[in-house]
Amino acid sequence: MHTVTIADFTLGEGRLAFIAGPCVIESKTLTLEVAHALKAYAVELQVPLIFKASFDKANRTSVTSFRGPGLNQGLEILALVKEEVGLPVLSDIHETAQAIPAAQVLDVLQIPAFLCRQTDLIEAAAHTGKPLNIKKGQFLAPWDMAQAAAKAAKAGNTSLLLTERGVLFGYNNLVVDFRSLPLMRRLGFPVVMDVTHSVQLPGGQGSCSGGDRQFIPHLARAAVAVGVDAVFMEVHPNPDKALCDGPNSLPLHEVPRLWRQLLDIQALRKHWEEG
C-alpha cells in the first residue's frame, strides 16, 4: 500500500482524515470563514484536515452558472487559507496549463471525475510532484481506476488518492456501490469517499444540479464502516444560498457531530479488524 504524506500527516496508515470546504470559492471572506471554522473543529477533534474549494468549476451544467474567481485570484485566496489558517489546501484543475501554477500553492491537485481519463491532464499534474486526488468517473467501474493510477505512476508520481463519488444510475441520479471502496483500495492507494457529490442529482434541476443532503450522514457512516482513508465533504454556512452544489452540501454547523460519529465508527472498525 502506497502512503501519501500531506503537510504533517500521512494517509494510508489507518488514521481517518477529512477533506472539506465549500464547493467553489465564492469570496475571500466566506472562504476564510469556513476555513477557520473547520480548523477549529479539526483541532478540537484532533483529526487531519485538508481544506477544499474550487477556483473554477469548469463543468457546470449551464453556461450561466457561477464558476468561481478563476485561477489567479482563486489561488491567492487559497494561499491565504494556508498562511492565515494553517491548513493544507486542495483544488481541482481542468487544463494542463493550470498544473504548474496550481502546484505552487496547492498541497493536493485534484483531477475531476469527468476528466479522470484525460491522459495529458493526469500526466501534467503528476509531473508537478504534488499528491493527486483522482476522482473516479461516474461512468467507470472501480477497477478501471487502475488505468488512471498507471498514467500518474508512469509519469513518476505514486502519491495518489482515489475517490469514489457515485455512479450514474438512470437519469439525473447517482448510486454508490460500497464494494468499490475495497476494490479500489486493492489497487494499492489510499481511498477517499466523497459523500456529498454522491448525493448529487446531476442536472436534476434543469439548468443546474440538484441533490439530497439528508443522506450525507448515512453514506459517510457506511463508508467509514466499510473502510476508507478519508471522507470528502462539501460544506457551507448556508447551503440554500450557496452559489454551487448547495443541495448536496452539508451545513457547516453539522460538521462536528458527524465527524464525531465517524471517528467512533472508525475506532470500532479498527477494533473489529484487530479482533
Explain briefly what this protein structure is:
By secondary structure, the chain is α/β, with parallel strands linked by helices.
Structural overview:
The chain has 275 residues and is of the alpha/beta class. The protein has a single domain (4-274), classed as Alpha-Beta Barrel (TIM Barrel). 34% of the residues lie in helices and 19% in strands. It has helices at 28-45, 71-85, 99-103, 119-127, 145-154, 180-185, 216-226, 255-274; strands at residues 4-6, 9-11, 17-21, 49-52, 89-92, 108-111, 132-135, 160-164, 167-168, 174-175, 191-194, 200-201, 210-211, 230-236, 250-251. The strands form 4 sheets. An 8-stranded parallel β-barrel has the order 3-4-5-6-7-8-11-14, surrounded by 5 helices. The protein has a two-stranded antiparallel ribbon with strand order 1-2. A two-stranded antiparallel ribbon has the order 9-10. The longest helix is centred in the C-terminal third of the chain and has 20 residues, at 255-274. The two termini are 22 Å apart. Pathway: Carbohydrate biosynthesis; 3-deoxy-D-manno-octulosonate biosynthesis; 3-deoxy-D-manno-octulosonate from D-ribulose 5-phosphate: step 2/3; Bacterial outer membrane biogenesis; lipopolysaccharide biosynthesis.
